[in-house]
Design brief:
heterodimer; A: 238 residues; alpha/beta; six-stranded mixed β-sheet; four-stranded antiparallel β-sheet; 7 helices; 26% strand; globular; disordered N terminus; B: 724 residues; alpha+beta; seven-stranded mixed β-sheet; 21 helices; 56% helix
Chain lengths: 238, 724
């Protein structure tokens, strides 16, 4: 029996100019040109799906936009400020305070309970533990995980663990959420629950989402799709 | 299978992991082999050389009414210590019949009267000094001892042939002299303590390095399971890989042990170095230890593969340790209760209570139990403390680190357990050593000068007692004529604890008196030397000692030579020591200082190994969480936060038990000393070297953690993590 994923409303958020902007981005690894001159604007509150086959450069593009990598040439701007000009510490600070991340798997600290895992980004930004626990508990509740707060990652299902990761990514109320194949390791039912939660909460908090996926069903939750092929944007959708 | 193992380990990271495992195994095997070689070397040299000390001979002894009435298959022997400058020389005097059939190990027929056989080191010492200072003491040197006899290359040993009548009073008769591995049970105890202090960290190091990167390895094995490999095939794969890696490490370890033997041979035990050959591991030992480590490593790897948490679907889940049971505290508690009982029993014996059983084996048993108990009790104590701390923690570093310790108390404690044991043993030793520290030589204007020679005379040689015996006075005058002698005094004893000497002799020693006869405290070797006027005792005064002062060390040695050879007619029991030398020997300070140096060296070696184990364990902990740490850094966690997490994860277990271990060490030292000496001795605060060694242990740990943290920061950089 197959389970279909039903996209939620795809009305784009109101835009007053790009929150995140890339111009002429290039990045090579040795002789491999992973990104070859990409221009991209992402509006505040927009949910953008970056699609493409494996090895097309979509994860590299996400890492360039998030300040994980610096481009060989071109610029990345966030809220009008250049990201690529910041040093490593500056970019780390930006990622910690303004961005959130959800990865495919293996992102929860195995020794911390689900609740403690969600508090980690808050604690890293100096929030007191009591406040962090309260906020984390609130976010777990929003993701239908209130009863699982004391469980360790090893005691959670894949879908539950991924929703904990979503809670952890959103608990700092980031301006942009970067999600790299967030449903890649999940079955379709769990993937649907994760994507519903992620997009609903992002819309509710007006968080911009950059979603890298090669799965059209996951991309269907986005307001807009771009396709990366051989390091270049080869098309847009919706 | 080998091809598959090579395929899996082709990646750079895996090659580093295997190289680290091989390196760790090499170091562990080298240390284990060196430790074992050291142990066997001590035993071997004991067997080889201890026959020279007839006071330690328990077998082949014959009781004769007339010791001079020897038969051809008997020998009469006496061992004593000769002294020359700062050297101590072991002298065996042997008397036999002219037609003797007895032989001495490595020498054959005992030397004839007036001749001697000396060790090469003593021959060199004799050759470098005037005969009247040393060489004359040994008569005609007819041969040098072969290497198969002395304990070590710098051992100073002489076997002197004498007439039976010279040993008639204090010689012992034997049919043969044989060596034994350990001269006293104390050596056995020291070997046990040494094995624990150094052997345990080696075992920990081996355990830690063979588990490096186990999480990633399990993922790879789980992937193979996913594509159809059977559990048996995975077990074989893990076994093959570990066998190849640890075999390479073991071979390198044997080579290392062989190469470091000459350097280790420079370490002195009881003032004697080792022959490098004594410390070179033999083929059988190398095979047993080398292959033993390989077999154990392979067994552990195979067991890990069998217990792989990934099913046919390939998933690997983090294993959370179950909380260690509180029962694990039991051995520690029993050991401490045992030691407390033995300590209190010692105090009771000191107050007159009867001694129920010999305390030695019990004390050592309790010590081993406490040491073992520290290892078993560490994880539950640490887990519970970390649990308490994690609930109160505020801040990402404390929350992450304390929860890690709480969830993995065994693994966390194992990382520092080597250091814990090293610090415990050094604390016990430092505490026990304080029992000797308050017995140092007393000095000052009211004491005999430390360099005064004190010769114990064979008073039976004088037919009539008295300080003014004409024979004695003539001999003393002859002694005063030896170049460099500034004062000679005869000391007589009678009932009442008073030592007598003439006023003129006292004046010559630097304690002016116009009285014809003065008395001093009979314990003047350590007590003040304060001559006072006394009435002549009713009992006769027997001359027991001579006090001799000289201008310099050479003159002192000339006096010793004259007294030892008896050429003036003065007969002494042993080579006379100075008051300072007597003090060192009597208070056991020489022994204690030698073993203190050795113990501190051993502890620093153990701490070094433990620091390596700590580094490896810390690295293993980071490698196992490399992806999640990397992703956290990718999300913006500052690199220094990762460093602080790693440092906290190492520091919390170490500091939690460090204070406890130091305090326990002092208690155990008190209980051992009090128990072993029946309450006659107690302990005090350790000296500065103890705190220096502790600081060195902590510094080594800090360096290990700092290096690991640096490496972890590099290994979790965003550029690395995005490929995970």
């Amino acid at each position: 029996m197959s389970t279909s994923i039903v996209p939620v409303a795809t009305e784009p958020a109101a835009t007053t100019g790009p929150l995140l902007s890339a111009r002429g981005l290039t990045r090579s690894f040795g002789l491999t040109e992973a990104v070859r001159g990409i221009d991209l604007d992402i509006a505040a509150g927009e949910i953008l799906a970056v699609m493409g086959p494996s090895g097309s450069g979509k994860s590299t593009l996400l890492h360039l936009l998030a300040g994980v990598l610096t481009p060989d040439s071109g610029t990345v701007s966030f809220d009008g400020d250049r990201v690529d000009g910041l040093d490593e510490a500056g970019r780390a600070r930006l990622r910690l305070t303004a961005f959130g991340f959800v990865f495919q798997f293996g992102q929860l600290l195995p020794d911390l309970s689900a609740l403690d895992n969600v508090t980690v980004p808050l604690l890293l930004t100096g929030v007191h533990r009591r406040d962090a626990l309260a906020r984390a508990h609130d976010w777990l509740g929003r993701l239908d995980l209130a009863a699982d707060g004391d469980k360790l990652p090893g005691e959670l299902s894949g879908g539950q663990a991924q929703r904990v990761a979503v809670a952890r990514a959103l608990v700092t109320e980031p301006r942009v959420l970067f999600a790299d194949e967030p449903t890649g390791s999940l079955d379709s039912l769990a993937a649907e629950k994760v994507m519903l939660a992620l997009t609903d909460l992002a819309r509710a908090s007006d968080t911009t989402v950059v979603l890298v996926t090669h799965d059209p069903r996951t991309a269907a939750y986005a307001d807009r799709e771009v396709v990366v092929r051989d390091g270049r944007l080869s098309g847009t959708g919706r | 299978m080998i091809a598959l193992a090579r395929l899996l380990n082709g990646a750079r990271g895996d090659r580093w992991r295997l190289a680290a495992i091989a390196g760790g195994v090499a170091l562990g095997v080298a240390l284990a082999l060196s430790l074992w070689s050291g142990f066997t070397a001590i035993a071997d040299r004991g067997v080889r050389s201890s026959w020279i000390d007839v006071n330690r001979q328990g077998q082949n002894r014959v009781e004769l009414d007339d010791r001079t009435a020897l038969t051809a298959d008997q020998l009469l022997a006496r061992t004593n210590s000769d002294r020359f400058l700062s050297h101590e020389i072991t002298v065996l005097q042997v008397a036999t019949t002219p037609d003797t059939t007895t032989t001495l190990p490595g020498i054959g027929r005992p030397p004839a009267p007036g001749t001697s056989v000396v060790s090469p080191a003593l021959a060199a010492l004799i050759a470098s000094h005037p005969p009247d200072e040393l060489g004359t003491r040994y008569g005609t040197i007819v041969a040098e001892l072969p290497d198969a006899v002395p304990a070590g290359p710098n051992a100073l040993v002489a076997v002197i042939g004498v007439e039976p009548v010279e040993l008639a009073n204090d010689g012992m008769v034997f049919t043969a002299l044989v060596g034994s591995a350990f001269a006293t049970e104390n050596y056995g105890y020291l070997a046990v303590i040494g094995a624990i202090a150094v052997g345990f960290p080696v075992a920990i190091l081996l355990a830690v390095v063979t588990s490096l990167g186990s999480a990633k390895r399990e993922e790879q094995l789980a992937t193979l399971r996913l594509i159809g490999a059977t559990p048996a095939a995975l077990t074989r794969l893990a076994a093959w890989e570990t066998a190849a890696t640890s075999m390479a490490g073991a071979v390198a370890g044997v080579a290392m042990a062989w190469l470091v033997a000459p350097a280790l041979a420079g370490i002195e035990l009881e003032g004697v170095r080792f022959f490098a050959d004594d410390l070179r591991p033999g083929i059988a030992d190398s095979l047993v230890i080398g292959l033993g480590v390989v077999v154990i490593a392979v067994g552990i790897a195979a067991l890990r593969a069998r217990r792989l948490r990934g099913g046919p679907l390939g998933a690997v889940r983090e294993r959370i340790e179950s909380l260690p049971s509180g029962w694990r505290v039991l051995p520690l508690a029993l050991g401490l209760i045992g030691l407390l009982t033995l300590g209190l029993a010692g105090l009771a014996v000191a107050k007159g209570a009867p001694r129920a059983v010999p305390p030695g084996p019990l004390v050592i048993g309790c010590f081993v139990l406490v040491t073992f108990g520290l290892i078993t009790a560490g994880p539950p104590l640490l887990g519970r403390l970390a649990g308490l701390g994690s609930r109160r923690a505020d801040g990402a570093v404390a929350v992450i680190a304390l929860n890690r310790i709480r969830r993995h108390p065994r693994q966390s404690f194992r990382a520092v357990s080597g250091l814990v044991i090293a610090c415990f043993v050094v604390s016990v030793f430092a505490g026990a050593r304080t029992t000797l520290g308050n017995l140092d030589l007393q000095d000052g204007p009211d004491h005999l000068p430390p360099q005064t020679l004190i010769a114990t005379l064979d008073w039976s040689a004088y037919e009539t007692p008295g300080l003014d015996s004409p024979t004695l006075r003539r001999q003393l005058d002859a002694l005063r004529a030896v170049p460099g002698v500034t004062a000679v005094a005869a000391v007589g004893h009678s009932a009442g604890g008073i030592a007598y000497l003439t006023g003129s002799d006292a004046t010559a020693l630097g304690f002016p008196s116009s009285e014809p006869l003065v008395g001093v405290d009979a314990g003047y070797r350590s007590a003040p030397f304060l001559p006072r006027a006394v009435e002549p005792p009713v009992e006769p005064i027997w001359v027991r000692e001579l006090l001799v002062q000289t201008t310099d060390a050479a003159a002192r040695e000339r006096v010793r030579t004259v007294l030892v050879t008896g050429e003036l007619g003065l007969r002494v029991y042993n080579t006379p020591p100075t008051r300072a030398e007597w003090s060192e020997t009597a208070f056991g300070n020489t022994w204690a200082n030698e073993y203190a140096v050795l113990a501190n060296l051993g502890i620093l070696v153990a701490a070094g190994i433990s620091a390596l184990a700590l580094a490896a364990a810390t690295l293993a902990g980071v490698l196992d969480r490399r992806r999640v740490f990397g992703l956290l850094r990718l999300t913006g966690m500052p690199p220094r936060t990762l460093g602080r997490i790693i440092a906290t994860e190492a520091a919390v277990p170490l500091l939690t038990v460090f204070v406890m271990v130091a305090a326990l060490g002092q208690f155990v030292a008190w209980a051992m000393v009090t128990g072993l000496t029946d309450g006659r001795r107690t302990t005090g605060w350790p000296g500065p070297d103890y705190y220096l060694v502790l600081a060195a242990c902590l510094a080594l740990a800090a360096v290990a953690v700092a290096v690991t943290a640096h490496s972890a920061r590099r290994g979790t950089s965003t550029a690395v993590t995005r490929f995970e």
